[in-house]
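Record 1 of the preview.
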Amino acid sequence: MAADPVLARAISIEDIAVIRHLETAFEEENKNIATCRAYASRGDEEGFHGIASFFRAIARAEQIHAANHARVLRQMSGPPSVQMTLPHVEGSLENLRTALADQRFEVEYLYPAFLTAAVPLIDSTAIRTFHWALEADKSHVRLFWELLPRVGADKAGWAYTPHLFFVCALCGYVAQNPESENCPSCNYLWERFETIQ
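->
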């Protein structure tokens, strides 16, 4: 029995859509890596070493997301490519607000839309990389909301002192302190988290 050509075409179009979503996510994560690294440098220049530590942790998490997306892209369509633009850098407080807005965009719109498109295909690798990035980005947003009030509160406080952050090497979840034996996002062992300062 011959396969239905309309059904075959629809499936390939859906696959192409997921590949495009993976490419977009890969580009977005690479943009965030460069931006967060630039923000960390600005934080150190301004004496905000705590903020710089946080941005280095977020940059590492975004690097993990990009690597996960790239691995799936290689399986589906070949090696990904990215076009980089130089990030716009302001003062550290404005950088925190801008980065929070970027993370909220990913959590509220980007990854939910990509997951919605991937789930009907039952493509577990695409679903997993989108899900991990979404859940990890939720941890980033939570930390941004916790850290923003600390920045201007005390001139000798949190924002000025380097801090350790814990980054899940599998999904990019970020925490200030060990939270449990396993990553809340992907169940990876906490002992395998990376420590970033």
